[in-house]
Design brief:
Elements: H1 8-28, H2 31-53, H3 58-77, H4 81-103, H5 108-113, H6 121-148, H7 151-172, H8 174-179, H9 183-186
Helix pairs in contact: 1-2, 2-3, 3-4, 4-6, 6-7
Length: about 190
């Protein structure tokens, strides 16, 4: 089977499908059914990604490992604490990895998104710092919400709040992406 480019509709489904299924299963059944559903759909998303691209991207792989471990603990111990901690762990891991890259003088964001954006080194550095702080902030917010509010509220923040704020965050990066784009530098003047 040869490597194929994943159609955008399937890529979107693999990225958003697990969280949509989690939300639906939670409101139709309960948090434990939703936990099993997100575990299964996350692993399914990895299989689909691999079938198309013959590789598994790092971020979805890390997410799948954490979902499997913490989801498994939630189901095995019948304790929802673990699935509620999962976003904190994932966001903290992403922030730590990005911060480690900065300390080593590398931009893991460039590695992940270099095919989509052509930025100067300064642009990659600034975007990496912003993403590090963003992921760290999401980890803190998740901790505050799951420890102080109802499970219903936490699920809504997880599904709608984090998804919405991530969209707003990336939209807010457009000026940085535009300012530090190197595409215009590389293209010949007419």
């Amino acid at each position: 089977m040869s490597t194929r480019k994943m159609p955008q509709s399937i890529k979107t489904a693999t990225e958003l499908g697990p969280i949509v299924i989690f939300f639906a299963a939670y409101y139709l059944y309960d948090l434990y059914v939703a936990t099993g559903a997100i575990m299964a759909t996350t692993l399914g998303s990895l299989i689909v990604s691999y079938a198309y691209e013959k590789r598994i991207p790092a971020m979805p792989l890390v997410t799948a490992v954490v979902v499997t471990i913490f989801g498994g603990l939630t189901l095995y111990l019948n304790d929802d604490t673990f699935i509620k901690m999962k976003p904190t762990i994932i966001y903290a891991l992403f922030a730590a990895a990005l911060a480690a890259g900065l300390l080593l003088g590398k931009s893991f964001v460039k590695t992940l998104f270099g095919n989509f954006w052509d930025l100067s080194d300064t642009g990659w550095h600034q975007l990496t710092v912003r993403l590090t702080l963003f992921f760290l902030s999401l980890a803190v917010v998740n901790e505050i919400v799951w420890r102080n509010f109802s499970t219903d509220f936490w699920v809504n923040v997880k599904v709608f709040g984090f998804t919405g704020i991530t969209f707003v965050f990336f939209m807010a990066q457009v000026p940085l992406l535009t300012k530090h784009s190197t595409k215009s530098e590389d293209s010949p003047e007419e």
